[in-house]
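Q: What residues go here?
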């Protein structure tokens, strides 16, 4: 096989673009030519040497799409050379309780491409056929690379009933907060607010048509109460993983309302369980997505302004520069690595 370029985690705070051999396939695998790959907050944690499972050297990337260029499978396989695909990056154990009940996203032994095995920040990547999902030729590669985070929002919204009379609050206007808000918008709710502490994120939220509020505004709670006749929001989505949001979520929701936590907290934080008790709240977690959520993301993505979430694009060969900029603390939103797509 020939050679390819790949963005590799080679040690704490070291991302290098290396030349590697193009992978050789085993039975049941496909070789995918990557079109585009997003950089996620989890990738930054790996790059900093803080992820508990990731081991160097590792090709990063779990938000990507591409085109099948080689297959090793039975003749009646669902895929063929030339198919455009998004990557469903979950690698569950396949035999635990939740895997047996078609909810692999909650698998205790869950692994992912780009975390535990080489991912999509490369010109080519080999993948199990079970991790491929077909996408239309009409879907831009930039949107195809955002299907993974969109599926996170789709799964979070699927966790709780939402109706046209509901008021919803989304805590956090990063990528996950915004894709959650975009998914909520497809439910035609009565009113929705999103919060953040970063001005650029709030501005982007407003550009997307959301009522955006500063999370540190001392009048935030009163505003939500006034908007809901003194009751509070019907549903709150926590999408930050920040201690402030963990306390705010129980304040902003109404009695017998629902809270969905999809932000990843790096360590245990304070939560007002007295409010959960007294208000009879429903508090639930939301971890990544199921395959059905991923397929739903493919369905709704063409009708959503997904490209507005992308603030910077880099060629794969400059992945180190992209990571350096993001790890400097710059609040620049979603960064996309362009490999071979449009």
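A:
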């Amino acid at each position: 096989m020939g050679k390819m370029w790949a963005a590799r985690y080679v040690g704490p705070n070291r991302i290098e673009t290396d030349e590697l051999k193009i992978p050789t396939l085993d039975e049941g695998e496909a070789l995918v030519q990557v079109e585009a790959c997003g950089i996620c907050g989890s990738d930054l944690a790996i790059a900093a040497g803080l992820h508990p499972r990731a081991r160097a050297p590792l090709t990063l990337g779990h938000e990507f799409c591409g085109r099948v260029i080689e297959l090793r499978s039975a003749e009646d396989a669902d895929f063929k050379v030339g198919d455009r695909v998004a990557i469903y990056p979950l690698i569950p154990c396949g035999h635990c309780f939740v895997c047996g009940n078609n909810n692999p996203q909650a698998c205790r032994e869950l692994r992912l491409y780009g975390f535990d095995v080489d991912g999509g920040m490369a010109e080519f990547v080999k993948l199990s056929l079970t991790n491929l999902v077909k996408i239309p030729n009409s879907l831009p590669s930039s949107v195809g690379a955002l299907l993974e985070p969109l599926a996170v929002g789709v799964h979070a919204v699927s966790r709780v009933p939402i109706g046209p009379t509901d008021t919803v609050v989304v805590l956090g206007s990063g990528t996950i907060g915004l894709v959650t808000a975009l998914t909520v918008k497809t439910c035609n709710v009565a009113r929705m607010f999103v919060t953040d502490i970063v001005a650029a994120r709030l501005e982007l939220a407003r550009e997307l048509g959301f009522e955006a509020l500063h999370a540190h505004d001392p009048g935030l709670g009163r505003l939500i109460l006034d908007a809901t006749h003194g009751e509070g929001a019907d549903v709150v989505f926590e999408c930050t993983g920040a201690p402030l949001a963990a306390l705010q979520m129980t304040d902003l929701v109404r009695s017998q309302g629902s809270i969905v936590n999809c932000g990843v907290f790096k360590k245990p934080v304070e939560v007002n369980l007295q409010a959960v008790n007294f208000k009879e709240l429903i508090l639930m977690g939301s971890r990544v997505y199921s395959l059905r959520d991923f397929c739903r993301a493919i369905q709704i993505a063409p009708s959503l302004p997904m490209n507005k979430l992308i603030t910077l694009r880099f060629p794969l060969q400059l992945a180190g520069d992209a990571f350096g900029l993001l790890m400097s603390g710059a609040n620049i939103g979603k960064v996309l690595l362009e490999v071979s797509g449009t």
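A: Context that may help when evaluating the design: The chain has two domains: 3-150+289-338, 160-285. The chain has a mean pLDDT of 96.
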